[in-house]
Amino acid sequence: MSITQAEQLFRAYFDFEPRKNDIVRVGMRSASDALVIGNLDGIIYRSLAGGKPFIHRFKASDRPLLTVSFDGRQIYVLKGAYRFTERGFIG
């Protein structure tokens, strides 16, 4: 996904312009650098817009993998059949 696409999705979801550090580049050095912990059943998060926490439970067929960097200091959510849209997580 390009920075432009990320900015468009940000605007659609939050209905305001992204600020510095609202869009970041992420990536892993290689697949061997992460430990697969298991499937992620759901997430609880509070958006940048504030307010109450959102709870999203993934359908069994859509669950992503929860992985952790080799040093245990970074979480990665990989794969899965979910999407993030202007309405939040779908799947």
Explain what this protein looks like in three dimensions.
The longest helix has 12 residues, at 3-14. The two termini are 19 Å apart. The chain has a 3-stranded antiparallel β-sheet with strand order 1-4-5, with no helix packed on it. The protein has a two-stranded antiparallel ribbon with strand order 2-3. A two-stranded antiparallel sheet has the order 6-7. It has 91 residues and is an alpha+beta fold. It is globular and about 35 Å long. The chain is built from 1 helix and 7 strands, in the order αβββββββ. The protein has a domain at 28-90. The protein has one helix spanning 3-14; strands spanning 34-39, 42-45, 54-57, 65-69, 75-78, 83-85, 88-90.
Topology overview:
Elements: H1 3-14, E1 34-39, E2 42-45, E3 54-57, E4 65-69, E5 75-78, E6 83-85, E7 88-90
Antiparallel strand pairs: 1-4, 2-3, 4-5, 6-7
- The end-to-end span amounts to 19 Å
Structural class: alpha+beta
Number of helices: 1
Total strand segments:
7
Question: Which strand order does the major sheet show?
Answer: 1-4-5
Helix content: 10-25%
Residues in β-strands, percent = 25-35%
Q: Radius of gyration, rounded? A: 14 Å
Largest sheet: 3 strands, antiparallel
Give the integer mean of the pLDDT values.
Answer: 84
> Which residues sit in consecutive blocks of at least 5 with pLDDT less than 50?
none
Give the ordered list of helices and strands. Answer: HEEEEEEE
Question: What would the principal axes of the Cα set say about the shape?
Answer: globular
